Amino acid sequence: MNVLHVCANPKPTEESVSKQLAAAFFGKLIELKPEVELVNVDLYDEKPPFYSYELYRAAWSPVFQEGYELSKVEEMAMNYATKQADQFNAADVLVLTMPMWNFGVPAAMKAWIDQILCPGLTFEISKEDGVKPLHKIKSIVLLVASGGVYKEDDDRDALSRQIRHSFEFIGIDDLEIVWAEGQNPLFFDNYEENKALAIEAAAEIAEDIAEIDLTPAAEEVSAE
User: Fold this and answer.
1) Which of 32, 57, 122, 176 has its Cβ near the most Cβ atoms within 10 Å?
2) pLDDT of amino acid 24
3) Could you tell me which residues are beta bridge partners of residue 180?
4) Residue ranges in the chain assigned as alpha helix (H)
């Protein structure tokens, strides 16, 4: 099993609840599957550039213009995206670790998503065939912490909606969410209890991920 872990949190683990969820998740996963190949991407060490006009041209011009040749500047604009997409495409499971900031994902995570969700990198797209994935990811695990508490389908939760719909677009429908909510001690006296429950849930999700069947689907044999 190949796991890509992308983290967008500048805090050290002892101060970061979302990173503590990640520690619990990976502790259990590696205990159950010690052969796991894990790639860690810290978006504060490998900072993604913002989506640029040159990246847009490099990604989308070949879709709209048959035979389009990238300029040197456009090729350079793809460097970060290509490296990250290669790691993405090699993974069986994607784990995203982050806090909720201002009701959404941190800017670094949004920039990373913009970089990898490009045609020709993680998916192909055409009028005839629609969207075809170039990856083999079976599941996404979202490990998130927030100061507030958000009920299911809360309009203020832009974070999980963006993650879900962004990756559904390229064919990933299985999203597991572990959420440490109510982490603002000014308003929630039970923040430690909430964190403990989320850490326990992270370990339970790791058990489910460890059981994912990665056996390639058998090819259909023609009766002819």
Assistant:
1) 122
2) 98
3) 145
4) 17-32, 53-64, 72-77, 79-90, 107-116, 158-168, 191-210
β-pair partners for 131: 125
At residue 131, the 3 state secondary structure works out as: strand
Note the pLDDT tens digit of each residue in 29-45. Answer: 999 999 999 999 999 99
14 token code pair: 């002892």
**How far is CA 208 from each of CA 27, 29, 212, 215, rounded to the nearest angstrom?**
14, 9, 7, 16
Q: Say which residue the tokens 């055409």 belong to.
A: 126
Banded model confidence at residue 153, pLDDT cuts 50, 70, 90: confident
Q: Are 59 and 26 in contact (CB under 8 A)?
A: no
Task: Supply the DSSP symbol for 125.
Answer: E
95: which strand partners? 5, 141
Q: What percent of the chain has pLDDT over 90?
A: 93
Identify whether the C-beta of residue 120 lies closer than 8 Å to the C-beta of residue 62: yes
Pick from 223, 103, 222: which is nearest to 156 by CA?
103
Report the b/e string of 2-13 with b at 16+ CB within 10 A: bbbbbbbbeeee
d(CA 195, CA 35): 29
3 state SS of 92: coil
CB 118 within 8 A of CB 55: yes
Residue 213: its pLDDT value, please?
Answer: 87
Residue 216 has a pLDDT of 67
